[in-house]
Amino acid sequence: MSITKKVVLDKVEFVGDFGILQVRERTDVVETIDGVENVISSSYHRSIYNPDQLNPRLLGTDEDGNEYRVDPLPENLVPYVTGVWTDELVQSYTNDILANESETLAAAQELQATEETE
Question: Which of 24, 31, 53, 94 could form a disulfide with 11 if both were Cys (CB 3.0 to 4.6 A apart)?
């Protein structure tokens, strides 16, 4: 008798206008008796990946000059996104994120200025 743990990609799907990648991993605890495997426990873990993780963009730098980037896409998922995350889609996603960041920053600055005058 032996007990092993197996982690497998259980589900890979793309959702939304920008093809956000959702991945579900299943972890099985497997008991093997006389060559027969029986799953005695399973659990799931979900992860979400965005198109800008294929070629991680620079988010900023700190006071010491260290760069911070979007986390890269795990190598085992690259084959899944190859036909979906085109250069045009990645650029469109990045442009949308940057536009939203600019709008959020402008709104925060406006709110801060209003609070300072009160």
Answer: 24
DSSP string, 22-58: EEEEEEEEEEEETTEEEEEEEEEEEEEE-GGGTTTPE
Give the closest residue to 81 by CA, choosing from 51, 46, 48. 51
Domain boundaries, the chain: 2-117
CA dihedral 81, 84, 85, 91 (to 10 degrees): -170
Q: How far apart are CA 42 and CA 39, in angstroms?
A: 7
Give, in order, the Cα–Cα distances in Å from 90 to each of 17, 50, 72, 100.
11, 9, 14, 15
In tens, the pLDDT along 94-111 reads 899 888 887 777 777 777
Q: At 106, phi and psi to the nearest 5?
A: -60, -40
- Tell me the pTM: 0.72
pLDDT of 16-45, one tens digit each? 999 999 999 999 999 999 999 999 999 999
